[in-house]
Write a structure and sequence with these properties.
Elements lengths: L1 E8 L2 E8 L2 E6 L2 E6 L9 H6 L11 E5 L5 H9 L4 E6 L2 H9 L8 E5 L2 H7 L4 E6 L16 H9 L2 E10 L3 H10 L1 H7 L2 E7 L6 E5 L8 H11 L10 E5 L2
Parallel strand pairs: 5-6, 5-8, 6-7, 8-9
Antiparallel strand pairs: 1-2, 2-3, 3-4, 9-11, 10-11, 10-12
Length: 247
């Protein structure tokens, strides 16, 4: 892949690579984002963050994305949901600058803010139809979740959801996602109607999507396929996505 951009800032390095129209963002050598404007859903982990929007009876009109990176999830949501307002939060200003300059992350109604995500959510009183928690820190080898009180954080995020909203969390590993759900099963049961576990082939991440409001009983894969087709988007990547209802 051709190197389009490289910068060292303090103890961090940022790199954008390209292969044709496909772009990748690397931070400290770690693969953060991939985007191809003509291959919106490629069967990667970012698909798991946004495909649950296709299961809603009424598509979300607002979204909060915590952890923008190169903006893949933001792009995908804009393609499948009629968002009138969305907010992307990232604590790294260089990520936001790269997302705009190289990944063309510019949409009407989209605000990109360089802030601490926890502090933003604590003071923000907006209710969102779709909320993505994709927060992680650079670890010595693999990404790490921030040092949060996860129970308090889960309740805070849930309090920022609209009545029929969806909370999506990247738990980094499938086993950890299952364990987190079991640990907080009582809260999920009391607060959400359904909870979906998603994963992508070749990625270790386990993604939890918690839904308020009743959902169709068809298989998620069927609804994902129908939804993408309605938007004129290829469904080829879906063969690499696994989705299982936990609740």
């Amino acid at each position: 892949m051709a190197q389009l951009f490289y910068r060292r800032f303090g103890d961090k390095t940022y790199e954008v690579r390209a292969a044709g129209a496909s772009l990748r963002l690397y931070t400290n050598g770690a693969f953060h984002s991939q985007w191809h404007p003509n291959r919106v859903f490629q069967g990667a982990v970012w698909d798991c963050l946004t495909l649950p929007a296709l299961l809603l009876n009424n598509p979300p009109q607002s979204a909060l994305i915590l952890g923008v990176g190169g903006g893949t999830a933001c792009h995908q949501l804009q393609r499948i949901a009629p968002l009138s307002r969305s907010v992307g939060i990232d604590c790294d200003s260089e990520h936001l600058a790269i997302a705009q300059r190289f990944f063309n992350l510019r949409y009407p109604g989209l605000d990109l803010l360089c802030e601490d995500a926890v502090r933003y959510v604590e003071r923000d009183r907006t209710f969102y139809g779709y909320l993505i928690d994709d927060l992680f820190l650079d670890g010595p080898e693999d990404p790490l979740r921030p040092d949060l009180n996860e129970e308090i954080w889960l309740k805070l995020l849930s309090s920022r959801l609209a009545d029929s909203g969806v909370l999506v969390q990247n738990r980094l590993e499938v086993a950890k996602a299952k364990a987190f759900f079991r640990q907080h099963r009582a809260f999920f049961s009391a607060t959400f109607d359904r909870v979906l576990l998603l994963s992508a082939q070749h990625y270790s991440n386990g993604i939890l999507a918690a839904f308020r409001g009743p959902q169709a009983r068809l298989s998620p894969e069927v609804l994902f396929s129908e939804g993408l087709k309605q938007h004129g988007i290829s469904t080829q990547g879906l063969k690499r996505i696994k989705a299982t209802w936990l609740q």
